[in-house]
Amino acid sequence: MMSEQEALKCSSARNRGGVQRVEGKLRASVEKGDYYEAHQMYRTLFFRYMSQAKHVEARELMYSGALLFFSYNQQNSAADLSMLVLESLEQSDAKVADDILEHLAKLFSLMDPNSPERVAFVSRALKWSTGGSGKLGHPKLHQLLAVTLWKEQNYSESRYHFLHSSDGEGCAQMLVEYSAARGFRSEVDMFVAQAVLQFLCLKNKSSASVVFSTYTQKHPSIEKGPPFGQPLLNFIWFLLLAVDGGKLTVFTVLCEQYQPSLKRDPMYNEYLDRIGQLFFGVPPKQSSSYGGLLARPLFRLPGNLLNSLMGSGEEEEGEEAQEDSSPIELD
């Protein structure tokens, strides 16, 4: 008698063989230039598979079809099938896995960077990756998106996704390139200072340390330290040590002593207020300016303000910011 596991394997092999035969016919249609007909057939098969609860087959067929259309520069058809890949995930009980996240990132990388479909795709992909919970998205997916955007030299959006990943080293290397390509020599310290403060606001102390050490070691305009020639870098170095120690008096004195450097960006003290709450037990202010910031369109502003860190990417995707008079919670 065939075991249940063996039967499932045989069934899976038969299903895969059927999908491959269908793929062969569809590929032939695309190669002949019958794009519209092939696209409609893909959609028909998708809904047929979904009605039969064959979610994996539907997803695999739409993924291969999207790659095929992308290879023929049929962006609209490819983007549509990419959305169907997401629909198959949303309607199934598929677990988040590296291979699925890599497939989603691959589709994202092939989409026209300026297309509205890409914005909609990444929003839905991030939402699915956290179970539709409204959280920020799976760190691995953010990391893959960040690398794609970095290759496109879209540094500001790459930076946003790196902040929500766990890849401090990759973030630092991107920031070195970003600083060299778009920044002034006098700003080399500000690129990493902002990233470290924002990682700390997200309670990601390990990535904050990695991004600082990697950036200061690899940036050609920074002399090896510590101590560094730039006071702001010395402040960040001391801050990371203070976070490990957790002593409020050290944090307070540090912020007072380096106020001239901290005044270079008005957001630094906002970040430090939050860091004080998270790591040093400082009580929240009764009246916080964070609420006013929430009404701003954050993601594309040069400062990449504090609340963009906790906004789950909706503002990036074109949705309106939510107004809230309470202090920001990054938990």
Care to give the gist of this entry?
This protein has helices at 4-31, 35-51, 55-71, 75-90, 98-110, 116-129, 139-151, 155-163, 168-182, 188-201, 205-218, 231-245, 248-257, 259-262, 267-280, 290-293. The protein is mainly α. α5 (98-110) runs parallel beside α7 (139-151) and α7 packs antiparallel against α8.
Produce the secondary structure layout:
Elements: H1 4-31, H2 35-51, H3 55-71, H4 75-90, H5 98-110, H6 116-129, H7 139-151, H8 155-163, H9 168-182, H10 188-201, H11 205-218, H12 231-245, H13 248-257, H14 259-262, H15 267-280, H16 290-293
Helix pairs in contact: 1-2, 1-3, 2-3, 2-4, 3-4, 4-6, 5-7, 7-8, 8-9, 9-11, 10-11, 10-15, 11-12, 12-13
Structure overview:
The protein is an all-alpha fold and 331 residues long. Helices cover 66% and strands 0% of the residues. The chain contains 16 helices and no strands. The chain has helices at 4-31, 35-51, 55-71, 75-90, 98-110, 116-129, 139-151, 155-163, 168-182, 188-201, 205-218, 231-245, 248-257, 259-262, 267-280, 290-293. Helix 1 (4-31) runs antiparallel to helix 2 (35-51), helix 2 (35-51) packs parallel to helix 4 (75-90) and helix 11 packs antiparallel against helix 12 (231-245). The termini are far apart. The relative contact order is 0.07.
